[in-house]
């Protein structure tokens, strides 16, 4: 681990584990969920509200911050910690997901990725070296190596998955060589699509490069949940157990507990806030779609078991009204509720693992999702 970093397992139940991930800006108790702050902010949620909801670490997007306001601007204002006001740990992704999500604007070759900017159409390049340079300027506690995430589907899917996995390994080596900050951890990313042999090969080769942590990339793109967990477990068998494990972009509660059961430590996803903005709330009683007319005069809190501001102070009827009227407060309250739900779920998972009751928690969450 780098200067100021550490990772120490504190409890386990089967493959599920609790650990303390130490960073220069604080300790993260894992398993942990990272709210997504694409442009340096979780949409509509202030840093102090994130802290009150239980967030420990936040994720920002390298590519988008490079485009706007520019990593030099962020660096000049104290990095992400000084620029945003979130003083706890930050993780920045590498921009690799944009290789897929902006595929119609991107060209990939061995050197890196060339984009036509969605802002002004200007040509932008992202190489493994530049992705590291940007993340070093942003000052994140944890940076990610640039990877290639192939889009699923197509007659040549297997060949594309293999080519992307091999290129990701070559880029990982270049990223490792370009990384200079001793106060910033660097994670490698495993690719390989839905092919277990490719995932195992990618995991073993990535581990041989000696990263500070390891991520699963290219999942959550339509594969069955059970298949995803099999692939995660296969990759874990090829990685050092004493390093943190991160499953990128996976966010349904039932998927989180299944992945925790397989030994994953870190998660991120836009689902809590995206669903919140559309009036879909996660609760201890299942999903609530608060824009539905049946909630128009419902006096109950969204979730009687929740202590967030939306549930402590407001009724379903009021939230329904705000959402139907497109009042910004409705989206804010719903997003805060969903974030609190996720962060409470992960805190419950940590307690359950420590007390030997995680399997019961996992089964309850999955049964609620199926009900």
The gist of it:
The chain is α/β, with parallel strands linked by helices and about 375 residues long. It has 15 helices and 16 strands. It has an 8-stranded parallel sheet with strand order 4-14-13-12-11-10-6-5. A 3-stranded antiparallel sheet has the order 1-2-3.
Helix content: 40-55%
CATH architecture of the largest domain: Alpha-Beta Barrel
Largest sheet: 8 strands, parallel
Mean pLDDT: 95
Radius of gyration: 20 Å
Total tally of structural domains = 2
The main sheet orders its strands as 4-14-13-12-11-10-6-5
Low-confidence stretches: none
Secondary structure category? alpha/beta
Shape summary: globular
CATH third-level topology of the largest domain: TIM Barrel
Q: CATH H level of the largest domain: which superfamily? A: Queuine tRNA-ribosyltransferase-like
- What is the C-level CATH assignment of the largest domain? Alpha Beta
- The total strand number stands at 16
Number of helices: 15
Task: Name the features.
2 domains, 371 residues, alpha/beta, 15 helices
Can you characterise this structure?
The strands form 4 sheets. Strands 4-14-13-12-11-10-6-5 form an 8-stranded parallel beta sheet. Helix 6 (128-138) crosses helix 7 (157-178), helix 7 runs parallel beside helix 8 and helix 8 (196-208) runs parallel beside helix 9. It is an alpha/beta fold and 371 residues long. 43% of the residues lie in helices and 18% in strands. The chain has helices at 47-53, 62-67, 71-76, 79-84, 96-101, 128-138, 157-178, 196-208, 225-236, 253-261, 271-277, 309-313, 316-324, 328-355, 358-370, and strands at residues 6-13, 16-23, 26-30, 32-34, 58-60, 90-92, 106-108, 113-116, 123-126, 142-144, 185-190, 213-216, 245-247, 266-268, 280-283, 286-289. The mean pLDDT is 95. It contains 15 helices and 16 strands. The chain is globular. The protein has 2 domains: 6-269, Queuine tRNA-ribosyltransferase-like (TIM Barrel, Alpha-Beta Barrel); 276-370, no CATH class.
